[in-house]
Design brief:
The complex is a heterodimer of chains A (252) and B (530).
Chain A (H helix, E strand, L loop, with lengths): L1 E8 L9 E8 L4 E5 L6 H8 L7 E6 L2 E2 L5 H7 E4 L11 H11 L4 H14 L4 H4 L9 H13 L5 E5 L7 H18 L2 E6 L2 H7 L2 E6 L2 E6 L1 H6 L4 H20 L1
Parallel strand pairs in A: 3-8, 3-9, 6-7, 7-8
Antiparallel strand pairs in A: 1-2, 1-4, 4-5, 9-10
Chain B lengths: L2 H10 L1 H35 L1 H16 L2 H12 L4 H26 L2 H9 L4 H31 L12 H9 L3 H29 L11 H25 L4 H10 L3 E6 L4 H17 L2 E6 L5 H9 L5 E5 H8 L8 H16 L1 E3 L9 E6 H7 L15 E5 H5 L4 H8 L5 E5 L1 H9 L5 E5 L3 H5 L2 E3 L12 E6 H6 L2 H7 L7 H12 L5 H11 L4
Helix pairs in contact in B: 2-3, 2-5, 2-7, 2-9, 2-10, 3-5, 4-5, 4-13, 5-7, 6-7, 7-9, 8-9, 9-10, 12-24, 14-15
The chains are: A alpha/beta (252), B alpha/beta (530).
Chain lengths: 252, 530
C-alpha cells in the first residue's frame, strides 16, 4: 500500500506550497484518482511517490517503508509510471521502449522478447506489426498503449498514471479508459491516476481525492463525493456539469 | 592553355599532388579525430557542470578568433618546432568550438519530457546520459564534427606556412610565384576534398540513424550501412598510408645518413626571390660540400623562419639586413649599409648564436616606383621629382609599408611628400594595380621581376631615406663550427648578384614562369661556380 502522512511541498523556499498538508492512503488493488485543475498539486503529489520530486515535509510510505529510505532508482523500477506527454524514447523501437526496464533489471534477451510480445497483446497491439516501429510512426492512442505496456513491463505492484489520456481525442480516450478498467480487473494493480477530467475520475476511481490549490478537499468513493460534498469547492465542481446537462435537457 | 597541356601539367605533378592530398587529409583527419575526443567530453562535462560553461566556451571562443597565421607563429614560439605538430595543434584548436558547442547544444535540446521518463522508469544518471541523452544528441554532435572537418580542410591549407605540407604547399608556392595554375592545383583539390569529407561524415551519420537498425538483411540499405561507417575511416587510413610511405626526404635522408652524408636544412620565406636564394645555396652545397639538403621552403614569413632557425628546426636561410635590424632586433633604422651589416652580425651572434655571412650583393630595399612611360613624360628620375605633382597621384602600398616608420610615414616627412590618395594592397595585387593604372605610384621591392615585366621605373632615393636591405645567408653557429667548409662554399655567392641581376632572375621565374632550379643552375654555371 501507499501512505502519505502530512506531506508538504514548496518550490520557493516556503512562500507558497504546491502541496499543503496532504494525508491519504491507497489500499492494495485499489485505484485512487487524484482530481483537480492544473496547478492544484496532483502531479506533484504523484511525482513525490517515486521521488521524481522530493517532499519538503511529511512522510510517504510504499509497502510500509519511507520512500526516502529507498534507493530512488530501485524504487522507480518497482513502480510503473505512465507519463503525461507519453515520454517514449524516440530513438528506440516499440520493442526497445517496452523492454527498457527489463534491460535495466538485467533480464535475458529471450525472456524480454517473450514479455514484450505478451505486453503488446495485453494493451491491444499486434506484436508482429508494431515491435519494430518507432514512436513517431504510431498514432497518439497507440503511443499511449506502448506507454502503458512499458510501465507494466516489470510487473510492478504499483502503477502511477499522470493524465495518460489527456492529449487523446474523445473516442480514443474512451476506448482506452474501458481497456484500463478491464486491465485493472485482470491485473489487480494498485493504481494512482491523475486527471482533470471529472467523468474519467468517476469512471476509473474506486476512490477519488479532490485537490485544490495544494489542499486536499475531500477523499472518498464516487457516492460519498456526489451525495455529501465536504466543501463548497467540491459541490461546485460537480454541480457545474450537472447544470450544463440541465441546460441541454431544457433545450431538447 | 589547351586541354592537352592542362592534362600534362597535372600529370607531371600527379605524384606530388597525391602526396600533398595525403598530407592534407592526414592533417585534417588527425586533428578532427583528436578534437572529437577532446570536444565531445568537454561538451558533456560543461553540460553537467553548469558553472563551467561560461569560462570554457569563452576560452574556446577566444581561441577561435585568433587569426590562423598568428596562431601558427604563437605555437611555433611555444613548441619550438615547425612542421606537422604545430599545424595539427592549431587545427585541433579551431575544430574544438563547433564540436564542443554542438555537443552542448545537442545534449541541452533533448526534450525534458523524455528525460523525465528516463529518470522516472528508474535509469541511473549515467544510464540516462548513455542510453537516452547522448543517442538523441548524436545527430547534432555529428553535425558539429562535420562542420569542424570541412572547415579544417580549408584551414589546413595554411599549414604549408610552417612546413607541414598539404595542398597549401601548391597554393603557397603559387602565390609566391604569382602562378595561378599552381594556386588552382592546390585550391581545386582542397575544395573537392572538402566535399568528399562532408559526404563521408554525412554517410556515417546516415548509418548511425536508429531506423537503419531494422533494415532487412540483404537489402540495399543494410549493405550500405557498413560501407557508410567505413568511409571516413577508410579515408583517414588511406591518407596515413600515403603520408607514411611518402618517398620524399624522410626516406631519402635516412638512406643518405647511412652512407655518411650529413643533412643541412635550408628554409626560405614565401616569395620568389627567397626561393631563388634558397635554391642557389642548396645547389651549391649539394655540389661542393658533402651534404644532403633538406629544402624546407616557403615558410610563412620572417618570424617563422627566424623562430625555426633559433630553435634549431632549420639551419640556414637568407635574411635582409634591414629586416633583421628593424623586425627582429627592433633596432632603429641604420642607413649606412656597412654599419647595418656590422650591427646585425654582432647582435645576432650575441643574442641568437647565429652567424651572418657575406651578402649576395644586391639591395632589395623599397623603391618608390612609377610606370616608365609616366616617368619619361614627366621627367621623373628621383623621388624628389614627384613632390610637386604628388597630390594628383594615387598611391598603392602594402599594408606594412603604409604603417612602418621606415615606410610611408617617414617618407612623407623626409620628402614633404603627400599623395592624393593612398590605398592598401596585397603585394602581388599592388603590381597588378599599377599595371592596370588603378594607381600611379607603388612601393615596389627594388629587385622584383615585375618591375621589368610591367615596364615600371624605380625612382632614385636621392635623400637616402630607405634603409638598406642587403640579403645574406644566416646560419646557425654550431653548424658552422662543426662544418667550417660551409662558410667557404657559401662565400662563393658573396657579392655576385647585383640589383639588376636579381631583378632578372626574379623576372625569369615570375614573368617567364620558368623552373627555379633551372634558372639557378644556369646562373651558377654562367658564373662558373658550378
Amino acid at each position: 500500500m501507499i501512505k502519505l502522512t502530512r506531506v508538504f511541498k514548496t518550490f520557493d523556499g516556503g512562500r507558497s506550497f504546491a502541496v499543503n498538508d496532504i494525508s491519504l492512503d491507497v489500499a492494495v488493488g485499489e485505484t485512487l484518482v487524484l482530481l483537480g485543475s492544473s496547478g492544484c498539486g496532483k502531479t506533484t503529489t504523484l511525482k513525490m511517490i517515486n521521488r521524481l520530486i522530493e517532499s519538503t515535509k511529511g512522510t510517504i510510505e510504499v509497502n510500509g517503508r519511507d520512500v526516502m529510505d529507498h534507493d530512488p532508482v530501485e524504487l522507480r523500477r518497482q513502480i510503473g509510471y505512465v507519463f503525461q506527454g507519453i515520454g517514449l524514447f524516440p530513438h528506440m523501437t516499440v520493442k526497445q521502449n517496452v523492454e527498457i526496464v527489463l534491460r535495466l533489471l538485467g533480464r535475458s534477451s529471450d525472456s524480454r522478447k517473450r514479455r514484450v510480445q505478451e505486453l503488446l497483446e495485453l494493451v491491444g497491439l499486434n506484436a508482429k506489426d508494431f515491435s519494430t516501429r518507432f514512436p513517431d510512426e504510431l498514432s497518439g492512442g497507440q503511443q499511449q498503449r506502448v506507454g502503458v505496456a512499458r510501465a507494466l513491463a516489470a510487473d510492478p505492484a504499483y502503477l502511477l498514471m499522470d493524465e495518460p489520456f489527456g492529449a487523446l481525442d474523445a473516442l480514443t480516450r474512451e476506448s482506452l479508459q474501458q481497456e484500463l478498467l478491464a486491465l485493472k480487473r485482470r491485473l489487480q494493480k494498485t493504481i494512482i491516476f491523475v486527471t482533470h477530467d471529472i467523468f474519467e475520475a468517476l469512471l476509473l476511481g474506486d476512490r477519488i481525492a479532490i485537490l485544490h490549490e495544494g489542499y486536499l478537499q475531500q477523499i472518498g468513493t464516487r457516492k460519498d463525493i456526489l451525495t455529501s460534498p465536504a466543501t463548497k469547492f467540491v459541490r461546485d465542481l460537480f454541480a457545474k456539469p450537472a447544470r450544463q446537462l440541465d441546460v441541454f435537457k431544457d433545450h431538447s | 592553355m589547351g586541354a592537352e597541356h592542362l592534362i600534362s601539367y597535372v600529370a607531371e605533378r600527379l605524384p606530388e599532388l597525391w602526396l600533398r592530398t595525403g598530407e592534407h587529409l592526414m592533417l585534417t583527419g588527425c586533428s578532427t579525430l583528436a578534437a572529437m575526443f577532446i570536444g565531445v567530453p568537454v561538451g558533456i562535462l560543461i553540460f553537467r557542470t553548469t558553472w563551467l560553461r561560461g569560462p570554457v566556451m569563452g576560452v574556446i571562443g577566444i581561441l577561435q578568433t585568433i587569426p590562423s597565421l598568428a596562431m601558427l607563429v604563437f605555437l611555433l614560439a611555444l613548441l619550438k618546432k615547425i612542421g606537422v605538430l604545430p599545424a595539427i595543434i592549431a587545427l585541433i584548436i579551431y575544430a574544438l568550438l563547433p564540436i564542443a558547442r554542438n555537443t552542448l547544444t545537442g545534449l541541452e535540446e533533448v526534450s525534458a519530457e523524455v528525460m523525465e521518463a528516463a529518470e522516472g522508469i528508474g535509469m541511473q544518471e549515467y544510464q540516462q546520459l548513455m542510453m537516452v541523452r547522448i543517442p538523441l544528441a548524436t545527430p547534432v554532435i555529428v553535425a558539429g564534427i562535420r562542420t569542424a572537418a570541412v572547415v579544417g580542410v580549408g584551414i589546413a591549407t595554411l599549414s604549408a606556412f610552417i612546413g607541414a605540407g598539404g595542398l597549401g604547399q601548391f597554393i603557397n608556392r603559387g602565390l609566391a610565384l604569382s602562378n595561378t595554375k599552381l594556386i588552382l592545383l592546390g585550391a581545386i583539390p582542397a575544395a573537392l576534398l572538402a566535399l568528399v569529407v562532408d559526404f563521408s561524415i554525412g554517410a556515417f551519420e546516415w548509418g548511425l540513424r536508429p531506423e537503419r537498425k531494422r533494415d532487412k538483411k540483404g537489402s540495399v540499405q543494410s549493405l550500405m550501412r557498413p560501407l557508410a561507417f567505413m568511409l571516413p575511416v577508410a579515408i583517414i587510413l588511406t591518407s596515413m598510408v600515403t603520408y607514411f610511405t611518402k618517398p620524399g626526404w624522410v626516406f631519402e635522408s635516412a638512406t643518405r645518413l647511412e652512407t655518411g652524408h650529413r643533412i643541412i636544412r635550408i628554409a626560405t620565406k614565401n616569395f620568389t626571390e627567397q626561393l631563388i636564394l634558397g635554391e642557389m645555396m642548396a645547389q651549391l652545397i649539394e655540389a661542393k660540400a658533402n651534404f644532403m639538403v633538406e629544402r624546407r621552403f616557403n615558410l610563412g614569413g620572417t618570424m617563422i623562419c627566424h623562430g625555426a632557425l633559433v630553435n634549431g628546426e632549420i639551419d640556414l636561410y637568407a635574411e635582409y639586413t634591414g629586416t633583421g635590424l628593424t623586425a627582429i632586433l627592433k633596432h632603429e633604422v641604420i642607413t649606412d649599409p656597412e654599419e647595418a651589416l656590422y650591427h646585425v652580425t654582432k647582435a645576432y651572434h650575441e643574442r641568437f648564436d647565429l652567424q651572418w655571412l657575406e651578402p649576395f650583393g644586391f639591395n632589395n630595399t623599397y623603391a618608390i616606383t612609377v610606370r616608365a612611360a609616366d616617368a619619361a613624360q614627366n621627367g621623373w628620375n628621383t623621388i624628389s621629382d614627384l613632390v610637386e605633382s604628388a597630390h594628383n597621384l594615387f598611391a598603392g602600398f602594402t599594408a606594412e609599408f603604409a604603417e612602418r616608420p621606415d615606410g610611408y610615414p617617414g617618407l612623407r616627412q623626409t620628402y614633404t611628400l603627400q599623395f592624393g590618395e593612398v590605398r592598401d594592397f596585397d603585394p602581388s595585387l599592388m603590381y597588378e594595380a599599377i599595371r592596370k593604372k588603378e594607381v600611379d605610384v607603388i612601393c615596389a621591392f627594388a629587385t622584383d621581376g615585375r618591375i621589368a615585366k610591367y615596364n615600371l621605373k624605380p625612382l632614385k632615393d636621392d635623400r637616402n631615406f630607405f634603409p638598406p636591405y642587403h640579403a645574406a645567408p644566416v646560419i646557425r653557429t654550431d653548424i658552422l663550427k662543426k662544418n667550417p667548409e660551409l662558410a667557404d662554399v657559401l662565400k662563393l655567392l658573396g657579392g655576385i648578384i647585383d640589383d639588376a641581376t636579381m631583378q632578372r632572375l626574379n623576372f625569369e621565374v615570375d614573368a617567364k614562369q620558368r623552373k627555379i632550379a633551372k634558372v639557378v643552375e644556369e646562373f651558377l654555371r654562367a658564373k662558373e661556380i658550378l
